[in-house]
């Protein structure tokens, strides 16, 4: 087992795995993910996310020492059992539901039970028009670099979000753009996620982003997925 500290502060992270509660993962592969030395396991997805399947996956991840976070896409799947709750606000959405609407509804219903210290807001910018998240959130993906940089600056300076998330889910993004975005962020942590299929790609994004999020390759090639942890941690920003 890799040596790692428990880390509940995203500013300390370099690598995270994102697991989809709507996908099957064997016990053996889950063990490899959880004992890989990654900084966190994020449970989140777009399709078929339910209280039942998130809780089932969470309870399996809980058998390991790795921090377990819920990335909230449906307030009905929230349960008081995670180390952190990552809450996306899709800055380039054309539908206010995904910027403040669902958030307002959730806080109105559950606000008095929320522990604000466990909530981490993510300013999302979704750049792959074909991913499910872009379609659901009606993201305006036809952005040039300056548009993206402006969203990043808004996340940091206007909204004071702790995280800016460049989301290319399903496709490998543009490392040059990720690098540019990093130059406009000081306090806000830059997450990159999308299309990482090899350790070399993970290393390339680790040179640009603070945190590299690895998703689907877990289900396609667990060996390569686990390799991304070490290379990201060995790569300097
Ligand atoms: C999805 O950013 C993550 O939210 C990871 O994307 O599944 O393409 O690795 P992939």
TrEMBL record:
It catalyses: sn-glycerol 1-phosphate + all-trans-heptaprenyl diphosphate = 3-heptaprenyl-sn-glycero-1-phosphate + diphosphate. The keyword Transport does not apply. It comes from the Bacteria. Pfam families: PcrB. Pathway: Membrane lipid metabolism; glycerophospholipid metabolism. Keywords: Lipid biosynthesis, Lipid metabolism, Magnesium, Metal-binding, Phospholipid biosynthesis, Phospholipid metabolism, Transferase. InterPro entries: GGGP/HepGP_synthase_I, GGGP/HepGP_synthase_sf, GGGP_HepGP_synthase. The keyword Metal-binding applies. GO terms for biological process: glycerophospholipid biosynthetic process. Its EC number is 2.5.1.n9. Its cofactor is Mg(2+). One of its GO terms (molecular function) is magnesium ion binding. Sn-glycerol 1-phosphate binds at residues 18, 165-170, 195, 215-216. Prenyltransferase that catalyzes in vivo the transfer of the heptaprenyl moiety of heptaprenyl pyrophosphate (HepPP; 35 carbon atoms) to the C3 hydroxyl of sn-glycerol-1-phosphate (G1P), producing heptaprenylglyceryl phosphate (HepGP). This reaction is an ether-bond-formation step in the biosynthesis of archaea-type G1P-based membrane lipids found in Bacillales. Belongs to the GGGP/HepGP synthase family. Group I subfamily. Homodimer. This is Heptaprenylglyceryl phosphate synthase. The lineage of its organism: Bacteria, Bacillati, Bacillota, Bacilli, Bacillales. The gene is pcrB.
């Amino acid at each position: 087992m890799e040596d790692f500290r428990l880390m509940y502060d995203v500013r300390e992270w370099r690598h995270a795995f994102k697991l989809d509660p709507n996908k099957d993962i064997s016990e053996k592969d889950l063990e490899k993910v959880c004992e890989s030395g990654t900084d966190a396991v994020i449970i989140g997805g777009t399709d078929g996310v339910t209280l039942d399947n998130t809780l089932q996956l969470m309870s399996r991840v809980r058998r390991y020492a790795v921090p377990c976070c819920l990335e909230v896409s449906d307030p009905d799947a929230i349960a008081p059992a995670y180390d952190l709750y990552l809450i996306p606000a899709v800055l380039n959405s054309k539908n206010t539901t995904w910027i403040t609407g669902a958030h307002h509804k959730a806080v109105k219903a559950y606000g008095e039970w929320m522990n604000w210290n466990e909530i981490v807001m993510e300013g999302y910018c979704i750049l792959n028009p074909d991913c499910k998240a872009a379609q659901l959130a009606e993201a305006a993906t036809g952005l040039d670099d300056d548009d993206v940089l402006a969203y990043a600056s808004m996340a940091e300076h206007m909204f004071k979000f702790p995280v800016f998330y460049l989301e290319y889910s399903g496709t490998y993004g543009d490392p040059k753009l990720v690098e540019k975005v990093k130059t406009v962020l000081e306090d806000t942590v830059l997450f990159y996620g999308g299309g990482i299929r090899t350790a070399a790609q993970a290393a390339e994004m680790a040179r640009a982003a603070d945190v590299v999020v690895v998703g689907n390759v877990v289900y396609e090639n667990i060996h390569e997925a686990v390799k991304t942890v070490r290379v990201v941690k060995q790569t300097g920003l």
